[in-house]
Input
Amino acid sequence: MSTNILGIETSCDETAAAIVRDGKEVIKNIIYTQIPTHTLYGGVVPEIASREHVLKINQVIKKALSDADMTWDDIDAIAVTYGPGLVGPLLIGVSTAKALAYAKGIPLVGVNHIEGHICANYLVDKKKDRKNPSSQDPQDDVKPPYMCLVASGGHSHIVRVDDYTKYTIIGRTHDDAAGEAFDKVARAIGLGYPGGPKVDKLAREGNAEAIEFPRASVGDSPYDFSFSGIKSAVLNYLNGAEMKGVLVNKADVAASFQQAVIDVLADHTIKAALDYNMKTVALAGGVAANSLLRETMKERAEAQGLSFHCPELIYCTDNGAMIAAAGYHEFMDGRRADLYLNAVPNLKIGER
Output
């Protein structure tokens, strides 16, 4: 018998709800993005994000059910992000999920946002599956154990996925996350918000070997990251050029910066996979949508005889489907949240 999970995600600036069957098949995925609103301010304003979530969350949930042609009787559990993230936005999702779970008599499951990103690797779009059910994309078959790089605006982790609900952090950033570095460099070269996609696009026009930016390592921690140095190196390069009156090729800056960050992300992840005898590496998080990162990880993984997996682009950014997928596995493990569930903005991977 199938299990349908409604996933709710409001950890930052996307109001999202989705229905996923058996932790894999995406029945409907609805995302309301606030990017146009926050672009005016050059980044996410938590108070504005919270108000936008209040205005949109009921509409997004209703649309997910309606478009899936389902009622609440078809939903076996409600999964909701309760951390990490911005506390105001998180509270909107958690409060809504608790109210619905209580009113409808449906079990509630709390989900770690980062673990949700990892579980995006299991998702398969229902329409694509129906179109050619006999032909499955090889990356749809990813199963633990494997090594996963989680790279986003707030997190950069190398995680060993031991099982569907068991995670071990192998490496982490000591300062800026990769996505944060992308946003800051994008702002410095005048690209604006959101920085990641804009740097990725501009870098295609530049020469990645034009400028030598540092590839930082962290002492005796071969799997850890540090991106504050490369961010400072870019700012120093731009300031130096301005002082000398030298014209800056922004595309070369973007390409050289991006290459330096991706070299470190890919090399550390592949090393971790080999050192821990993993046969598979995967990507997760918003930075996983970066075209060069996807290409580089695939090439370097396959060169070492490893299989490579990454979610479809729509499931790299924040979405309800990944929360439903993670919630499914928590639900099947027997975990339930009560009505005292609260937002935990600094929730760590693996915490329960």
In short: The chain has a mean pLDDT of 93.
